[in-house]
Design goal:
OB fold (Dihydrolipoamide Acetyltransferase, E2P), 7-stranded parallel β-sheet, 20 helices, 23 strands, 35% helix
């Protein structure tokens, strides 16, 4: 037996034993503590299950029954209608789902289910539209009307009633031994149950409300501890003078603005003021600039970088790809053509001699303004007096890469930028330690892109004809594919090579067409983009390598093949390639799917061009894992919380955490156990000092 009872091997819990302990290992349950934290995925409420004849119309109720029929058909408007008929003691109720054809696969004849919803009586039969449905185990008696049963994740060899009994034994014997690091006074102030009580409320609930209260406490624990870590990291930066102030002035501001061939928008002016305020401080700036596609974040970056150069400090802009780095470089060269600023490009594709020369000029301070890829943070690169680092499209890098610039005695100011609007939940977690600037005003003259979702052949033919007609007027077009080449994996997915062959011989025959993808060398990609920019290419068929940074004002058309293969935020980025000039932009989303979930996502693109609304919709539909193109695992180690579901708790946790840290209350002895737990969980991940 372990010294800490909670670390006792799970086999010693009553009702477990060695055989079941081996099965529990598949669920990563090895100790009593692991078992206690095996939380329900759902709750089966049998306290208000009605007999079908006793139902009341339009009131929330639950009905038990056995599946006796499964049906599906198309509606007159081209949608789908799925129906599942359940029977109980000779009475019937039909569950209906519109445009969810996949729902039928969840049911089988003879299956016992619980439907919950608001019933209606139609044509002599009760119906529920889109009912919440739960599958019942054989041991559940839905007619008892007294039970509230947790529904746990299972593994083969363990039944639900067995899992419930094991959790009941573990909770009754061991939950009182769980340590609660949260001070009792704080719990009382905010009406929170103890952690011990919360576990009992979840595993042995006496009411739905009690279960929800216990669950909320554990979710808050998860998010509060994370936000306390974020708040400590932010305080660490704010307390430690570590940067060289880079003040601006009326003269510097005027000199920089004269370089731009346009007036800044109100949004750009506001963000410039925020950045200038940060730069004029001995505390290093750590700011995230979220700008919707086309809002002009590159201009903001250059304004900040030139402010740094005006203070005789070096500055660097790091981009995730060579294509984007070169695009920024061309903007810099054009803007500073008549300037004496010493500017350099550093990428992995530079020849050894050229690369060595640039590295030496960075070391000796000759290079004042540097643009590059991750080549700028390699060991061979050492800045003489770096004052400001700008990191573009941060989510394309690892979360901690911005710390690469923070070496030595003085740290540079850091500006992180993205044109991928980030859902607020992720802003408060992955980027929660940064100050936030938002900018979604488009420059004058920019028009919203007209977006069309194409699902049927006639509409697709019209789209190709329209694209050809517009190209005939002198416009240019992108065609984007999910893959470079076809793959023998049993799926039919559009690829660059096949699209090139088909379009060259079909609807775009006779036009000047080129291909662009990530397997090409940097030189090949640069040559093709230069030809496209010079209007020597009509149609560019590519992968998402054009997703960010490509700025060709004459390219006003984009067709995205198998659009359902992309996330909404990625589609929004791609669409942003054709809103760069004064001509109207058009985006066509080609799809072959009939899955209503995918079509519902794509419909969002038709109804809004607001990147922030799209990001939230993408987050709601897909969850946090893929919204930024990176997996969440390992970056946000939550045990209970779900960012899609628990956004209201996240806001509460952030307010509580920053209030505790900013007031200094968190440094008191009463909070020492909670502070130690936060440091144990997040000190390494967030680079926190063990002293907090």
């Amino acid at each position: 037996m372990a010294e800490n009872p909670l670390q006792t091997e799970v086999q010693f819990v009553k009702g477990v034993g060695p055989d079941r302990a081996e099965l529990l290992r598949k669920l990563e349950i090895r100790t009593v503590e692991d078992l206690l934290w095996h939380l329900p995925r759902d709750l089966l409420d049998l306290t208000d299950v009605r007999q079908i004849p006793d139902l009341e119309a339009d009131e929330p109720q639950s009905v038990f029954g056995e599946v006796v029929d499964i049906d599906g058909r198309y509606t007159s408007k081209g949608g789908t209608l799925s129906a599942v008929l359940i029977e109980n003691q000779g009475s019937y109720l039909r569950g209906l789902w519109f445009n969810q054809p996949w729902i039928k696969k969840k049911f089988k004849h003879g299956m016992k289910v619980l439907f919950s919803g608001k019933p209606k009586f139609k044509s002599g039969r009760w119906e529920m539209s889109h009912p919440r449905h739960q599958i019942l185990e054989d041991d559940v008696d839905p007619n008892s009307r007294t039970e509230i049963l947790p529904q746990y994740p299972l593994t083969e060899g363990i039944k639900m009633d067995q899992m419930r009994r094991m959790l009941r034994e573990a909770t009754e014997e061991y939950a009182p031994l769980v340590v609660d690091p949260m001070p009792e006074s704080f719990r009382s102030q905010h009406g929170l149950p103890s952690r011990q009580d919360a576990l009992r409320m979840i595993h042995l609930p006496r009411s739905v409300e009690e279960y929800q209260r216990g669950t909320r406490r554990l979710i808050l624990d998860d998010l509060l501890e994370f936000q306390l870590g974020v708040a400590l990291r932010r305080r660490m930066w704010k307390r430690k003078p570590q940067a060289t102030p880079l003040p601006s002035s009326v003269k510097i501001d005027s000199r920089i603005r004269k370089l731009f061939p346009f007036e800044f928008t109100a949004g750009q002016d506001r963000v410039c003021r925020e950045i200038v305020g940060d730069l004029n401080s001995e505390y290093a700036m750590h700011r995230l600039l979220q700008a919707d596609v086309g809002a002009g974040k590159t201009a903001i970056a250059l304004y900040a970088m030139l402010t740094c150069v005006a203070n005789n400090r070096q500055t660097v802009l790091m981009a995730p790809t060579e294509v984007l780095a070169r695009q920024h470089w061309e903007t810099v060269e054009t803007l500073l053509a008549e300037s004496r600023v010493e500017k350099r490009l550093l990428t992995g594709s530079l020849k050894p001699a050229a690369k060595a020369r640039v590295q030496e000029e960075i070391r000796d301070g000759t290079a004042q303004l540097v643009v590059g890829t991750q080549a700028v943070i390699q060991d061979a690169v050492s800045f003489k007096n770096l004052g400001l680092a700008v990191i573009d499209e941060q989510h394309k890098f690892g979360v901690m890469q911005r710390a690469q610039f923070e070496t030595g005695g003085l740290s540079p100011h850091v500006l992180v930028m993205t044109a991928t609007p980030i859902p607020r939940s992720l802003c408060l977690t992955q980027f929660g330690d940064l100050d936030l600037s938002l900018m979604n005003e488009l420059p004058p003259g920019r028009q919203k892109v007209v977006t069309s979702l194409l699902t049927h052949t006639p509409a697709k033919k019209k789209a190709w004809a329209f694209l050809r007609e517009e190209i005939g007027k002198g416009r240019q077009c992108y065609i984007v594919c999910p893959r470079i080449t076809s793959e023998d994996d049993g799926t039919t997915v559009a690829d660059v090579e096949t699209a090139y062959e088909k379009l060259s011989r079909g609807p775009l025959k006779g036009l000047r067409i080129e291909r662009l993808h990530g397997r090409m060398s940097a030189e090949e990609k640069a040559d093709i983009m230069e030809a496209f920019a010079d209007r020597d290419v009509d149609v560019l068929i590519s992968t998402t390598v054009i997703e960010v940074g490509i700025d060709i004002p004459n390219a006003t058309l984009i067709g995205i093949l198998d659009a359902e293969r992309f996330g909404l935020s990625q589609l929004h980025q791609l669409r942003g390639r054709v809103s760069r000039g004064l001509f109207q932009g058009y985006c066509f989303l080609f799809t072959r799917t009939d899955a209503s979930e995918a079509l519902a996502r794509l419909n969002v693109m038709e109804t809004t061009t607001d990147g922030f609304k799209i990001a939230e919709a993408d987050f709601d539909m897909r969850g946090p894992g893929d919204v930024l193109g990176t997996r969440q695992s390992g970056q946000l180690p939550f045990r209970v919380a779900d960012l899609s579901r628990d956004r209201d708790v996240l806001e509460e946790a952030r307010d509580l955490a920053f209030g505790l840290v900013d007031s200094g209350e968190f440094d008191g002895s009463e909070f020492a156990p909670l502070k130690n737990r936060v440091l144990d969980r997040f000190a390494k991940l967030m680079d926190l000092p063990q002293s907090g």
